[in-house]
Design a protein that fits this description.
Strands 5-7-8-4-3-2-9 form a 7-stranded antiparallel beta sheet, with helices on one face. It is of the alpha+beta class and 146 residues long. The protein has 3 helices and 9 strands; from the N terminus they run αβββββαβββαβ. The chain has one domain (35-138). It is 23% helix and 29% strand. The relative contact order is 0.23.
Amino acid sequence: MNARHVAVACLLLVSTAPWAAGRPQQPVARQELQVNDCMRTDRISNYAVVDDRTVAVANGPNYFKITTNVDCPRMDLGGGVRFRASENVKAVAPMRICGSINEQIVRRDDPPCQIQAVEKIDKATYDQLNKNAKRKASGPGTSGGH
């Protein structure tokens, strides 16, 4: 058997390995909010850091649960949670977070954290998340958003 056959056999084994262990997990589809329903980063009245991946936000009469795709410790370091909107949403409606690709929580002295989901929630759900939060504060922080 020559080296070419061995290389092809190895590539076939590597490419089928995830299927051998069972079906690979499918990526979760994003559920973007309509622009009119998005969270306004300049109108944050209160927020609660529930855990390293979740922050609950009171935004006027609306409430939101924001989840990152990785742990994001110290997301409120520096006096507030700061958001960076995606360019496609900024072009239509500035200072809004809708759950789009490239929306981030920006942290001081640490890399930004990618937002996985922005969900509208009711007041009862917000109150429950707020009750179990590690840290709570009011206002948008020093910048309010980017």
